[in-house]
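User: Predict structure, ligand S-adenosyl-L-homocysteine.
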Amino acid sequence: MNFDVARKKMVQEQIAQPVSGDRQPVTDRRVIDAMLKIPRHIFVQEAFALQAYNDTSLPIGEKQTISQPYIVALMTEMLALTGSEKVLEIGTGSGYQTAILAMLADRVCTAERIRPLALRARKCLDSLRLFNIMLRINDRDNSPVGWEEEAPFDAVIVTAGAPEVPQILTDQLAVGGRLVIPVGSESEQRLVKIVKTATGELETVLSIGCRFVPLIGRQGW
Ligand code: SAH
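Assistant: Predicted complex:
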């Protein structure tokens, strides 16, 4: 299997010009270029490598999943990154979304609660020589989401489903900052984008429905 060819096809048919008619194309050129560059197959377990460019989420161990490529592209586009941002990601998982963010922003702070996943993600990210990433393991049961010491953030992305938008994350958003998070029940959510305006108000924009594994802990399930 030629992974480069498969990746091009993935970007074309699932993301830039989706074959599925009810899907909004992702048009941000920088997001598309990052999706073309980052090898998704190194972030999945070896047994799933041949499925890495399929239009689906996949298991990554520890009952967690790597998100569907389209959802990764869409959420990244919603963050409207230009290259100068400091980004916070909650839920490193495989590290695939982290790698895309690292290509598009100045710095990425990413937090994961399951140690073996975090360690594996770190290896993959290092192998791609992405060195603008700080990874933190939040494996205490009552760790708050967010990253007080590094706040404020220009962009925040949560890649696990939450019952509501955690206030700690909007508090850690810079003026003009964007937060993208799946909000809903444990079994299905909707992508929500929150923008902190110049006056400090929060504007909410709703996007498509999605299914993420649950955000665990004080602000989650
Ligand atoms: N973006 C990742 C998604 C992984 S699934 C990828 O594409 O691979 C979501 C991840 O969020 C899981 O690895 C889960 O362990 C993690 N998670 C859940 N609750 C968390 C919390 N409170 N803090 C940090 N990570 C959390």
